[in-house]
Structure formats: C-alpha cells, structure tokens
Design goal:
single chain; 4 helices; c-terminal domain of poly(a) binding protein; mainly alpha; about 80% helix
Length: about 100
C-alpha cells in the first residue's frame, strides 16, 4: 500500500481514482447482469426447444411483458412456470406464422 496510507497527497489521489472506478463499474454492473440474465434465459429456452431470439420474439407477439430479470428468475427458481411461458411464446409464434 505504501504511501497511499501515509501521505495525504497519494491518499487523495487514490480516493479520486476509486470514485472513478466506482462510477465506471456501476455502469458495467448493469451490463454484466443483463448478460447473465440472457445466458440463463437462453439455456432454459433451449431446454424447452427454443432459441433465445425465438423466445423473445414469441413473448413480444404474445404480449407478455416480463423483463429479462424476471424471466431469468423464473428459469432458475420455477422451471415449470418458465415452461408455461415458453409454451405461450411458441403458440404466439405459430399463430403469427399461420396468419
């Protein structure tokens, strides 16, 4: 740690850098969690026979407005409920193809 713990000048510089890192990483955290949610949703959707983009497209066509955080939570905590949502998305996709 060196002078950062003993010298005011270097301690102040470190605090300023730490604030920059904190600001930057608050933005990165949102990006990282969105990536994690997408990976979880993709894995669960593929387990139910759909790709991620087909699933999201089906949700939009079915008018289901669940965000990625909730969908990822469903996929992990309640796979049966997630499967029901996937079935609704599949039905909406089939209906849009038939029309």
């Amino acid at each position: 740690w060196g002078l950062k713990s003993r010298s005011y000048r270097y301690a102040k510089e470190q605090v300023e850098h730490s604030l920059v890192y904190a600001y930057r990483d608050r933005k990165n955290k949102k990006r990282t969690f969105r990536q994690l949610w997408i990976v979880r949703i993709n894995a669960a959707a593929r387990a139910n026979g759909m790709s991620y983009n087909q699933f999201i497209s089906g949700l939009h066509k079915a008018g289901i407005e669940l965000d990625r955080k909730v969908l990822a939570d469903l996929a992990v905590a309640d796979p049966a409920a997630f499967t029901a949502v996937v079935e609704q998305a599949k039905a909406a996709l089939e209906a849009s193809k038939a029309a």
